[in-house]
Amino acid sequence: MYWNGPDGIPGTEDDELVHPGLDGKLETGDDWVENGHNYLETNLRPGPDGVFGTEDDEVYWNGPDGIPGTEDDELVHPGLDGKLETGDDWVENGHNYPETNLRPGPDGVFGTEDDEVYWNGPDRIPGTEDDKKILSGPDGQYGTEDDCYDNKDKQDGTNMRPGSDGIFGTEDDELWLNGPDEMPGTEDDIKYVHRNSSGGGGGYGDRLVGRGAYKPVIEIMDAALEAMEPQTVGLVSNFYDTYQSFKKGQEMSRYIVNTGMQEIQMEAATGSQVEKETQESRWSDESYSDKDVGPVVPVKTYRNMKVIWMILLLILLYVLGYEIYKAKKKD
After folding, report:
1. Is 302 helix (H, G, I), strand (E, B) or coil?
2. Which of 55-59, 162-166, 198-202, 238-242 has the lowest mean pLDDT?
3. What is the CA radius of gyration of the chain?
């Protein structure tokens, strides 16, 4: 059986062979014709009315297996522009990554390397204005805790991550600063840790954590251990390395302090945002307890680095003095 094609005339070049779908029967909703010449990697189906060439025709992506008419085919929906074959087309992706939809990316073809994953947003409806493009984090993989989306529309310089459950829009979502490179989803991002509202001594307090926050201090301590080796040849090298690490530490500390000062002004907005997005994404109207995200001004980090730097200088002077003493004794 052939569909007469878009021109409606049988026996012309645009006629298309009609294939039965999974039920193995023709004249049912899952019949399909090849559609790759119009929209790569897709097939066309007649829709609810069972007639090809009408307004309710449906376009399906052939799915990961690349074969039309199989179980992994996915219905392609037009995006906000209401048109197919554009960058905002999407298919349901919740079976692979909860609360997400998949888009074809810049090349406009599903199933290629530039496909993009979007969180459905607080309204939980795919293909709407509040959808957020998900970035794979430093591990380069989707579906892990370091996935994030740019949060600049709510708070510039921040990104949101799904937390331990791996699902965006739940209570354990995390707010992160983009770090000195100002790019979301990179290794220097710094996490906000919420204050323990119980008032007990075991709470986290108000601070930033993450590799970006601790890396400079770790570098300085490593350099300090190297500087303690009593070899004169390595002293200059170790001293230089320590100096470079200290400079990096100063830059990071300056960034954290400056960011902390900015967060004092935006504290209320940031705290309410996390609560608001959680409330919007919950299925029920259950009240959501307030979370206090306080200002963070880690001045102690800078002071500690100055102390470490002074200790390193004293160690260096001691070792140099000892070497000079040994040299004079030999003479």
Report:
1. helix
2. 198-202
3. 29
Residue 179 has pLDDT above 80, yes or no: yes
For residue 322, give the DSSP letter: H
Among residues 191, 102, 90, 96, the alpha carbon closest in space to that of 143 is found at 96
- 41: pLDDT strictly greater than 60: yes
Q: Please state the domain count of the chain.
A: 1
**Domain range spanning residue 59?**
1-77
The answer to whether position 29 is within a domain reads: yes
CA gap 151, 173 in Å, rounded: 12
Find tokens 């960011």 and name the residue: 259
Give the number of other Cβ atoms within 10 Å of residue 195's Cβ.
Answer: 17
pTM: predicted TM-score of the whole model, two decimal places:
0.65
DSSP state letters, 135-195:
BP-TT--TTSTT-BEE-TTTSTTEEEE-TTTT-TTSTT-EEEE-TTTT-TTSTT-EEEE--
What's at 120, amino acid-wise? N
